Amino acid sequence: MEPVKKDAKTNPSATANLFSQVFFCWLNPLFRIGYKRRLEEDDMYKVLPEDGSERLGEELQSLWDHEVQKAAKDLRPPKLAKVLIKCYWKPYAVLGIFTLIEEVIKVIQPVFLGKLIQYFEKYDPDNMDALYEAFGYAAGVCLSTLILAVTHHLYFFHVQRTGMKMRVAMCHMIYKKALCLSSAAMGKTTTGQIVNLLSNDVNKFDEVTIFLHFLWVGPLQAAAVLGLLWVEIGPSCLAGMAVLVILMPTQTMFGRLFSKFRSKTAALTDNRIRTMNEVVSGIRIIKMYAWEKPFSALVNEVRRKEISKIMSSSYLRGLNMASFFAASKIIVFITFTVYVLLGNTISASRVFVTVSLYSAVRLTVTLFFPSAVEKLSETRISVRRIKTFLLLDEIVKSNHGFLQEEKQEPSVEIQDLICYWDKVNVQLLPPRLLDKPTVLFTAITNTFITSSLLSSILGELPHDKGVLKVKGQLTYASQQPWVFPGTIRSNILFGKELHPQKYEKVLRACALKRDMELLPDGDLTLIGDRGATLSGGQKARVNLARAVYQDADIYLLDDPLSAVDAEVGRHLFEQCICGILKNKPRILVTHQLQYLQAANQILVLKEGHMVARGTYSELQRSGVDFTSLLKREEEGPQAPGAETESRSPRSRTLSQNSVVSHTSSIRSVKDGTEQLPAEPVQTVVEESRSEGTIGVGLYVKYLKAGANILVLIGVVLLQFLAQAAYILQDWWLAYWAGEQEKLNVNGTVTVQNGVNVTEELSLDLYLGIYAGLTGATLIFGFARSLLMFNVLVKAAQSLHNRMFNSILRTPVRFFDINPIGRVLNRFSKDIGQLDAALPWTFVDFIQIFLQIIGVVAVAASVIPWILIPLVPLVIVFLFLRRYFLQTSRDVKRLESTTRSPVFSHLSSSLQGLWTIRAFRAEERFQNTFDTYQDLHSGESWFLFLVTSRWFAVRLDGMCAVFVTITAFGCLLLRDQVEAGSVGLALSYAVTLMGMFQWGVRQSAEVENMMTSVERVVEYTELESEAPWETQKRPPPEWPSQGLITFDRVSFSYSSDGPVVLKDMKAMFRPKEKVGIVGRTGAGKSSLVSALFRLAEPEGRIYIDGVLTSEIGLHDLRQKMSIIPQDPVLFTGTMRKNLDPFSQHTDEDLWNALQEVQLKSVVEELPNKMETVLAESGSNFSVGQRQLVCLARAVLRKNRILIIDEATANVDPRTDELIQKTIRDKFRECTVLTIAHRLNTIIDSDRILVLDAGQIHAYDEPHTLLQNHDGIFFKMVQQTGRQEAVALLQSAKQAYNSRSRPSTTNGGVGADGNLVIFETAL
């Protein structure tokens, strides 16, 4: 594997001094770079040694292994939590000191504030001592804000880093475990589950470490505050505390309900994404079947349920936020109501000390403490899940290979072997099987069993009884070709060093030479996820090349020839399997019977038993069931010497070649590769990523999707009303205190006279207004929250619907150039953001923004002068935000781009698990995983943490400046201000601290999330294909004959793409069976695309005289049946799969299944027709899925049937069955077959030979075969001598059995017909 990245810069935080560490100054250079240009991967700092994935992982792993052994000794289950605590408690405990300091300061600050306000209450211009004391208190308030700013962020940074370390170590262990799972364990878990462990469960460590310390700090702080309040206002404080204590469980209850909704929503979301996944991956089929409507109904139904759940959970969120917003108000209201009713008088210092103390404790008690409890329980669940995974069975490492001294021949020996995949008996009972060198040993059979045989040899399938001895190094080419993300070269070398000559030889033998020349960067082309840039055949050949390049002793090849066409297959067989590898033992599993003669030993397996073994000729004599598979081979007369020669393994390859060379002189190896057709490689369009800021227009679009203008205006008004009520409530308290103060000063005389009734403040009035304002705050607060959520969730819903409809209506071309992942990403990640995260962040941001404005307004109303220093502060702030956002956006982007390789590496490793183990590459893959981890967590995540802290420290610094200005400003203007207003201004200014930086970060978040909106909006505006129905409807029984005419049709997939069909004229007569052949890229599939108008063709296509381009797409597509190349089944019941519109009776469905011999299979399913299929029908074999597609065609009873041959990986029996059904059921139909195997179409009425998008020849097969220079004749010859003779024979038979029409109609008639037909029109 190539190194994941170049050397990064060294990490400056390791060498930074204390000041720089506290204020994160060592980041400045990075921000400077980020401001000038986009940050790239090599701008990130190298991972700190103590954060390295390998180091952390191994440390935890050793502790875990130790714990597992100890647990086994004590006969108890091992505890993962114990291991984690043991590994990380020391550094984490130290961080507790930070928390303590921070919370102590939070409690002391209000005391300073109270003393400061008292100075104003007892204000005496001449008392200088009191003034100096007041200056001291003011300095105390300011200092405490500053210290808070610093400690808070240092604490957060270090706890998050501890969390990160735990996560990285856990990931390392999970991946290591995944590489050595046994097959039984793989059955208990799925790739999805393992990816889930890595993506979700380990993230809990990041979250839990933040809050954990509050479990002991919280109660302490609450006790301290209670004590101070008791001193300040006596027993009334208990009333307020009681409210706080009641609020705690209600919030926890909200959280519970919320997570309940969340899990319900999650299930629905998974459901929707799964459906979407199928719609997008099967979009070609859906379009050709014209099934868009049932699918859109399906998705809309799921989405509707999902939205109703999301709406409920959003309302909950809204209530939760509003109650949080109003909580402090209720607490203060209750406290003072009790206080006043007990007959105490109110004073400014008391009011504001109380307010400040409550707000100090409120966050800890209502937010951090419950969060800590919640996160802790979540983490315990995650740890349990991870532990279950870590305790799954591992594979037993078997040791193949020679000891140095024994130089013996590699061999595989199997005797009386019985194996189980999860205890279902799969038996392999060869009496004795010795595999000598230079032996090609072929097994033919149904794939499942042979794969089992190979996996038992690889040691993947544990054997129960019997002997299995393997001597020598194994190498393996899997049936499903596996490639990992990287260059093609690294895929072939797979960790071996490059020997140019050998490498060239392997490329040539595997027919990859030509492909490499066509690819943009040759063999250094990057393969996308799961080999997205390569075609199936290319993947199969790379997979084979990887096995061949390894110098092993025994080669296990699992059906490597099925994915390539006949010509390439023959090349691979001769040049590679019998060429490069001719002196090595090879075990080849294959369906392709034409290669059997070359085998030294053939093993026929059926249902787990060995039916026969021996050489080709021995088996032929014994007349086993095998001959029925070989029917077609024998029809050609045996070559006289072939049988006897094929005994001796040496001359065998020669005899094969000499047979071929009769017909076409065998080309020298070198030229052989050049003439193989090259496969075009599709390049993927780069995903558009928006740069820069997001326009106002987008916000308007987003909000207008959710509600009309009037509602939006109402929402804005509500926001302001709520904020006004919020501030007025506090102001009223201050005013009340001030009035009381005046009374206390002026009213002394009247009290002495005993006439104090008149001068007391009217309690009813003041308390009444106070209660009214509190009520207003509550009502407006809740109303605006719920309304906002309603609007935003509705917006998400309407945007999703628009996007989905637009996707359904866009031409297929869109899906060819955009990989599935990208489209699905819009539906999963971006819609997920719109549903859950965005509304909440948006509302939160708006509330905080309004509160900040409120704070500034209050301060300015007390000391108007404060606006002067505010101006430079605002300017600095705006600059800082822009400066920070530029870098932060890049860091965030890097974090997400470096995250995906971690997951794709994991999932590709799981897919190629057998291959990785067969090649002994676990170590290397583990190291690559660690490198990716370091790149993600150690570098980009680390940067993400520090940059956000850098910014937050700076912002809180600015807040501290603001507090300082306010505090000293009040003292300087001491003559003009009242105690109440000072209290109001200062207590508000202090709340700015955490709130301001949180608000700014939320604003950045909103902006980042708006990119999701932007991406969704972009997909709502895709170009759409022709309408599904037009004014012009064809007659209902159309097409009654099935006559198809192409009149000068040219076709290309996009306006600027190459023309794949050029000026084509052809006519397919009613009831005619036409085969369409041609080399790769000749335009066979494009013919179908043109017929179905998957892109609009130029020229005219008539079906029964109706011009297809004039009618709606659904009218056209519903009237033609297609059996597609890759059979697609959709998740849902069997019935939905056959008949999504429910147009047919049960009887029809059963009959259709009977015709394709699937009735018995379906009857065995638990609920028969109503059985829900597994994801994309994976519980059916490929052959069976093909038959389901055939059944769909049988049901539709259309006059025109198009078969896009997919018989490459269907066994000969199914193939025969399909052919037979087509001949019987569709006798009255026009059938077009795109063939890859010539034997399926050799008896057609006519064959259309395409070459480079033009008609090369179009006639009866027999006639075509008379022309020895024709493409068709050459294609027949390439199938091998025997097959060719058989093909010629059946073409002749078909020719003779046909009733001849008058000969004139043979050649010219086709054209003549066309003319008459047009004039008739």
UniProtKB/TrEMBL annotation:
Gene3D superfamilies: ABC transporter type 1, transmembrane domain (1.20.1560.10), P-loop containing nucleotide triphosphate hydrolases (3.40.50.300). InterPro entries: AAA+_ATPase, ABC1_TM_dom, ABC1_TM_sf, ABC_transporter-like_ATP-bd, ABC_transporter-like_CS, ABC_transporter_C-like, ABCC4_TMD1, ABCC4_TMD2. One of its GO terms (molecular function) is ABC-type xenobiotic transporter activity. This is Cystic fibrosis transmembrane conductance regulator. Its EC number is 5.6.1.6, 7.6.2.2, 7.6.2.3. Residues 631-679 are annotated as: Disordered. PROSITE patterns: ABC_TM1F, ABC_TRANSPORTER_1, ABC_TRANSPORTER_2. Belongs to the ABC transporter superfamily. ABCC family. CFTR transporter (TC 3.A.1.202) subfamily. It comes from Oncorhynchus kisutch. Interacts (via PDZ-binding motif) with SNX27 (via PDZ domain); this interaction accelerates MRP4 internalization. GO terms for cellular component: apical plasma membrane; basolateral plasma membrane; chloride channel complex; early endosome membrane; endoplasmic reticulum membrane; recycling endosome membrane. Its main location: membrane. SMART domains: AAA (SM00382). Residues 651-667 have a biased composition (Polar residues). It is a multi-pass membrane protein. Its cofactor is Mg(2+). Residues 93-377, 713-1008 form the ABC transmembrane type-1 domain. It is found in: Apical cell membrane; Basolateral cell membrane; Early endosome membrane; Endoplasmic reticulum membrane. Keywords: ATP-binding, Cell membrane, Chloride, Chloride channel, Endoplasmic reticulum, Endosome, Glycoprotein, Ion channel, Ion transport, Isomerase, Lipid transport, Membrane, Nucleotide-binding, Phosphoprotein, Repeat, Translocase, Transmembrane, Transmembrane helix, Transport. Signal peptide: none annotated. The keyword NAD does not apply. One of its GO terms (biological process) is lipid transport. It catalyses: ATP + H2O = ADP + phosphate + H(+); glycodeoxycholate(in) + glutathione(in) + ATP + H2O = glycodeoxycholate(out) + glutathione(out) + ADP + phosphate + H(+); urate(in) + ATP + H2O = urate(out) + ADP + phosphate + H(+); chloride(in) = chloride(out). The chain crosses the membrane at residues 92-114, 134-157, 210-231, 238-258, 321-342, 351-369, 709-728, 769-793, 865-884, 951-974, 980-1000. Pfam families: ABC_membrane, ABC_tran. Residues 412-632, 1044-1277 form the ABC transporter domain.
